[in-house]
Design goal:
The chain is of the alpha/beta class. An eight-stranded parallel β-barrel has the order 2-3-4-14-15-16-17-18, surrounded by six helices. Strands 19-26-27-32-29-30 form a six-stranded antiparallel beta sheet, with helices on one face. A hairpin with a 6-residue loop joins strand 29 (about 675-680) and strand 30. Helix 15 packs parallel to helix 16 (about 585-605). It is globular.
Length: about 800
């Protein structure tokens, strides 16, 4: 028997300290399998491309775009932000200004170059976030309702007026017994406004009571654009004011789109709103009366004090009006403007001001952020809206604060976070991100404060094509067919609006009180996936899910409740959690509709299709009485998540282990198809699949069920053949190309264990010669270098931003003969 001399070469990549937007559908299993191997470019990840300053040069822009192409990245979102270096003629550094001719020429050059490379280009319609800038006057700046108070001693009949700042208007004044910290809003008496130019307010004198004067003022938040580029500083615009958005679109949007010429961007982008304390606009009282059919002015004290049913009804109407105004004066005009300019509007539609779940129906491309797949998240907020309103692509701002600070994340961190986004329904990634980093920035180059650095300055950049390919295949697959989530969780928008208070008017900011982590876990652990649904979606679309969950809902529109009653009558299953709805939202509806809401609750609670859960943890077991789980595990495994896409000829499941430990469990799938295949998202290869799931830490799997024979090999799971192991733990040579350094290792170890290379980040080549019998080279055999199990790390603070894989991974090299 002869032996063959073999050489094993191992590349270790270790960091310091550890479009169109894809609407094509496959029409057969063979077509799907083939395209999964070579997915379309429109499923590639994109990168948020920070232009610091902006101080950019054509040569560097072209170099970075070519690097992205080589790394498997499919496009960019241009985001001009703050400067990182002062102007320096010697280094060729010149910052901005934003929207200058030079800046717009750079946008045009970047767009042309990207298109030549086959890359997509998106752009933020502004610098930093939220929209605004120097072109926004105080009269169009984000608004707020301000309350000023003044004590009125017993017997006094006059009080000085509060000083009004630029952009402020006095709306109404009231006098009430008590102090600024303690008064009854229902007892407040309105006082006529003073004449123009007056410095004091005349009030009826009362000799025996201490009183307080309430001044309600239409004011401005004063918020400035966050992380603005040079020349883009200024007020955040009023998202309730159509004139403000028209001004912004003319000043910034029009000039940006002109730079794109006859090649418009694939989308224009609005980042998360984050317009803090924005709860008013100058014409709000008139808009309120037109929409709610009563004057809000007498009820203004209810917005700031008391929490009884009257106050909740008034606050609800205030919040509902705010939501309508941001929809009509911000989202709708932006989408229409984008279409007029032959592009799409991509929007992170959550936060403040008071947008709702169905506000996402007004945009072309909903986008989320946050990998919190087992609790309420902005990501599921966006994907749910897409599932409801027929948007086939949902993007996510991904890897924000990933394993912060900037250069600590490794590829496993990227994959693990991306898998959680997949579980929530995301199928387009916008990486956070790619900092423009020219040669004069040195190494490791520039970084954005809240993000990973995912460019060529990262030592593990050579493996980016593999990560990008994995994400591209799954993004493609999870756009196929239709979403198959079985449970809809009702978003109690009316309850959230009733709990609005001045300066706190975010529906999404209140959802954690209703859609709790315990509720999400109960549904997911029972074997279901979920979407959110709100009253407006039910009104427009009905309820297309086998089961509906009402989480601690008190206020519900009568018409919505009647639709839910009809759903129950037709066989739909409802689980009410914690309480039954009792109130109709809104001041005018409260008395008229309240008896009908109460009656509906009494009637529905008698139906066999209506179930009541005393607490969140009971929901999953009740759902199992009503609907067969989509993926049932034979043992509890909360670390395992899944999502399913339903095609005409198959079901595609994505399953992921989100934990740092191996999980072995048997799974039962609700697919009607009988044959199963496993598709490897890293290689595109297909295998026979069983129902036993053994998932390594942070491992994921694709299972495709269909009706037909399966003649595929079984995937190799890492079980070694007895007697065929070889000990290769000694006598290695390690070369460091970047250091021009080479060492011999008597025993295999990490280079970070050696003093000379302890702090080196980059690439090393480990080499060892060994003998392998010729018969061992038979076709179909697999050879692995096994470096042992990884190290489980103790979990850190769960409240810190960004994700981190709590495991130092083992290293395993595979060779297929």
């Amino acid at each position: 028997m002869t032996n063959r001399r073999c050489k094993c070469v191992l590349l270790l990549l270790i960091t310091f300290l550890w479009a169109p937007w894809g609407h094509s559908q496959s029409d057969s299993l063979a077509s799907l399998r083939e395209t999964f191997v070579n997915p379309p470019d429109d499923a590639r990840i994109m990168m948020r491309w920070w232009w610091f300053g902006p101080a950019v040069e054509d040569e560097e822009l072209a170099r970075e775009l070519r690097a992205m192409k080589e790394g498997g990245i499919g496009g960019v979102e241009i985001q001009p932000v703050y400067a990182l270096a002062l102007d320096d003629p010697a280094k060729g550094i010149r910052n901005g200004p934003y929207l200058s001719d030079d800046f717009l020429r750079s946008v045009s050059f970047a767009n042309r170059t990207a298109r030549q490379l086959g890359l997509r280009v998106s752009i933020t319609l502004g610098s930093g976030w939220p929209y605004g800038g120097s072109h926004i006057p105080i009269t169009q700046a984000a608004g707020k309702l301000r309350l000023a108070t003044a004590p009125l001693p017993a017997g006094a009949d006059r009080v000085a007026l509060p000083a009004l700042e630029n952009g402020e208007t006095l709306l109404a004044t009231f006098v009430v017994a008590g102090t600024a910290a303690n008064y009854d809003p229902e007892a407040a008496k309105r006082v006529s406004l003073p004449q123009a130019g007056a410095r004091s307010l005349s009030v009826p004198a009362v000799s025996d009571a201490e009183r307080v004067v309430l001044f309600f003022i239409s004011s401005r938040t004063g918020q400035q654009v966050k992380r603005a580029a040079v020349g883009a500083e200024g007020f955040v615009l009023d998202h309730f004011d159509r004139a403000a958005i028209d001004n912004h679109l003319h000043y910034a949007g029009g000039r940006l789109l002109k730079a794109f010429g006859d090649q418009p961007p694939v989308s224009v982008f609005s980042d998360s709103l984050e317009v803090y304390e924005s709860d008013w606009t100058p014409d709000f009282l008139a808009e309120f009366e037109k929409r709610r059919d009563y004057d809000l002015t007498p009820y203004l004290p209810e917005l700031f004090a008391d929490n009884d049913e009257l106050a909740k009804s008034v606050r609800h109407d205030w919040g509902k009006t705010l939501g309508e105004l941001v929809d009509e004066n911000y989202l709708e005009p932006l989408t229409a403007w984008a279409h007029e300019h032959h592009t799409l509007f991509r929007s992170q539609t959550y936060g403040e001001p008071a947008v709702t779940l169905s506000s996402n129906a007004l945009v072309d491309l909903p986008e989320g952020e946050g990998p919190q797949w087992r609790s309420f998240s902005y990501t599921r907020w966006a994907t749910s809206a897409s599932h409801l309103y027929g948007r086939n692509v949902t993007s996510a701002e991904t890897w924000t604060w990933l394993h912060s600070p900037a250069f600590r994340p490794v590829p496993l961190d990227m994959k693990a976070e991306a898998d959680r986004f997949f579980l929530e329904g995301v199928n387009q990634f916008v990486g956070h991100g790619w900092p423009y980093s020219p040669a004069y920035a040195g190494e490791p180059g520039y970084a954005f404060y809240a993000a990973a650095v995912l460019n060529q300055h990262n030592p593990w950049w050579p493996v980016m094509p593999e990560i990008a390919g994995y994400l591209q295949r799954l993004s493609f697959l999870l756009r196929q067919g239709e979403p198959a989530n079985q449970v809809a969780v009702y978003v109690p928008t009316d309850d959230a609006q009733a709990d609005f208070t001045p300066g706190n008017v975010g529906v999404t900011e209140q959802m954690a009180r209703y859609i709790t982590p315990e509720l999400s876990a109960s549904i997911l652990d029972a074997g279901y996936n979920l979407d959110y649904i709100d009253a407006k979606a039910i009104e427009k679309l009905g309820i297309c899910y086998p089961a509906l969950v009402l989480p601690h809902v008190d206020r519900i529109p009568r018409a919505t409740y009647q639709q839910i009653a009809a759903y129950v009558q037709k066989g739909g299953k409802v689980v009410a959690v914690g309480r039954l709805p009792q109130h109709a939202p809104g001041l005018k509806e409260a008395n008229e509709d309240l008896p009908r809401v109460e009656a509906l609750s009494r009637r529905l609670s008698q139906s066999s299709n209506w179930m009541f859960a005393a607490n969140d943890s009971e929901v999953g077991s009740l759902l199992k009485r009503a609907v067969a789980p989509d993926m049932q595990l034979d043992a509890p495994a909360p670390e395992i998540g899944f999502i399913r896409r339903r095609l005409l000829f198959a079901d595609a499941y994505f399953v992921a282990n989100t934990s740092n430990r191996t999980v072995s469990v048997k799974a039962h799938f609700a697919s009607r198809w009988t044959s199963a295949e496993e598709w490897d998202a890293f290689s595109g290869k297909s295998y026979w699949a069983g129902t036993d799931l053994k998932l390594a830490p942070y491992e994921s799997r694709v299972l495709v069920f269909h009706d037909g024979p399966v003649s595929l090999p079984e995937p190799w799971r890492g079980e070694a053949v007895s007697g065929e192991q070889m000990d290769l733990s000694h006598d290695w040579q390690v070369a460091f190309p970047e250091l021009h350094h080479r060492v011999d290792m008597a025993s295999l170890q990490s280079w970070t264990d050696a003093e000379a290379t302890r702090y080196f980040s980059g690439r090393a080549v480990y080499t060892r010669d060994f003998d392998l019998a010729e018969k061992a080279l038979a076709a179909g055999r697999h050879y692995f270098l096994d470096f042992g199990e990884g190290k489980v790390l103790p979990r850190g603070d769960p409240n810190k931003p960004g994700m981190h894989c709590w495991r130092v991974p083992f290293v395993k090299w595979r060779w297929f003969q």
